[in-house]
Write a structure and sequence with these properties.
It is built from four helices and no strands. By secondary structure, it is mainly α. α1 packs across α4 and α2 packs across α3.
Length: 69
């Protein structure tokens, strides 16, 4: 699949979990990575997409069909 707006597959995966309301710790546990790594992915996602809050991430995910409203 083509990258979504320049996101890596892992960033896309993290975005979906974040937008669905999962905490960094929950995402880290699910993906077998550290919470710090999840935080770094979130920072990268927000920078790449020019988003400034978790609410912006959720709105973006809904617009792109990543999650349902």
């Amino acid at each position: 699949a083509a990258p979504l707006d320049g996101l890596t597959d892992r960033e896309h995966e993290v975005l979906a979990y974040l937008a669905d309301g999962a905490s960094n710790a929950e995402i880290a546990d699910t993906l077998s990575i550290s919470p710090k790594t999840v935080g770094r992915h979130r920072e990268n996602i927000m920078a790449k997409l020019n988003l400034h809050s978790r609410a912006d991430l959720v709105k973006y995910a809904i617009r792109k069909g990543i999650i349902q409203a």
